[in-house]
Backbone:
């Protein structure tokens, strides 16, 4: 089930915990993967681990020109982009009354604007192929809100609206656009939390534990598959029951 | 009919799945040939490829009919 042989997937933020797991999962299903991220070293390491059919495509998503160029570089390296996973994200948390313009703008730019521009960049090829899978990694906080994350929650909720709108436009062309909304997943991003914060979070998760990056990757794998062709404009919540939406 | 018009007509017929006779000079892609807005974008993409030209977005918006397309492509070449 879920064979991606012959498909080419571009994954942003592949140097991170969730992105790496997504790349590994899609690669394991037979896809050729384009690993994008700002830090070249972990991307090279992941590519070496995966072996063949893995390409390193460094890109700083806060650089507009680099975002414009990435889809073209991906096509040059892999021949096509059949699957786009917008996974890259940054946080600049702060209580709202102290949140600076820079903290607002940078989070919106990287998490929302660059994702939208990458979708536009890969769409032409998908339209011609009459096939495409776009999976945007959002967050439970985009649906529930979270103190200290006005910027991040706005960007993630924005991505949900963008995904639904694009899903409408291109559904007749065999292209699906969906979101996967992780809850708290054990990665470097949640590693920054102290024990007290973690303890409080765990009391809110019915599953009683943080999620594993592989559990996000599995949801992405499904939405990337041919079998998920009738699922579009949806958000798959993977959060241990923390928010049942 | 010119070679360009023939090639444009072939693309329109194939893409929109319409009868060749319906593709007349004044036939509007959307009003007469059943195209939706996405079809018009795809037609422009197909024209660009067939004729090796670039059709900027503001010009693409002016191409409403079969005749518009042929005229634009003739001038662009």
Residues:
């Amino acid at each position: 089930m879920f064979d991606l042989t012959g498909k080419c997937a571009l994954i942003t933020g592949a140097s991170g915990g969730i992105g790496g797991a997504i790349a590994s999962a899609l690669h394991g299903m037979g896809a050729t993967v384009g690993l994008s991220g700002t830090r070249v070293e972990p991307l090279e390491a992941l590519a070496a681990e995966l072996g063949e059919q893995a390409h390193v495509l460094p890109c700083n998503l806060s650089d507009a020109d680099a975002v414009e160029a990435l889809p073209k570089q991906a096509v040059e390296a892999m021949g096509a982009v059949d699957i786009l996973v917008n996974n890259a994200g940054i946080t600049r948390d702060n209580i709202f009354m102290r949140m600076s313009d820079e903290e607002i703008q940078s989070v919106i730019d990287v998490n929302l604007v660059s994702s939208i521009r990458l979708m536009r960049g890969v769409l032409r090829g998908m339209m011609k192929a009459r096939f495409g899978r776009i999976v945007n990694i959002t967050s439970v906080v985009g649906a529930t809100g979270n103190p200290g994350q006005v910027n991040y929650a706005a960007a993630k909720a924005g991505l949900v609206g963008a995904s639904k709108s694009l899903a409408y436009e291109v559904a007749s062309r065999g292209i699906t656009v969906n979101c996967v909304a992780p809850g708290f997943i054990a990665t470097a991003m949640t590693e920054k939390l102290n024990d007290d914060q973690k303890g409080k979070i765990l009391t809110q998760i019915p599953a009683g534990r943080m999620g594993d990056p592989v559990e996000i990757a599995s949801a992405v794998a499904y939405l990337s598959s041919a079998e998920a062709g009738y699922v579009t404009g949806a958000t798959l919540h993977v959060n241990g029951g923390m928010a049942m939406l | 009919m010119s070679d360009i018009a023939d090639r444009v007509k072939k693309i329109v017929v194939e893409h929109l799945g319409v009868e060749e006779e319906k593709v007349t000079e004044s036939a509007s892609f959307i009003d007469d040939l059943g195209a939706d807005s996405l079809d018009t974008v795809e037609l422009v993409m197909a024209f660009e490829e067939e004729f090796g030209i670039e059709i900027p977005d503001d010009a693409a918006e002016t191409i409403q009919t079969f005749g518009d397309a042929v005229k634009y492509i003739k001038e662009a070449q």
Remarks:
- Chain A has nine helices and seven strands.
- Chain A touches chain B through seven residues (CB under 8 Å).
- Residues 176 and 232 of chain A are 5 Å apart (CA to CA).
- The first strand of chain A starts at residue 8 and ends at 11.
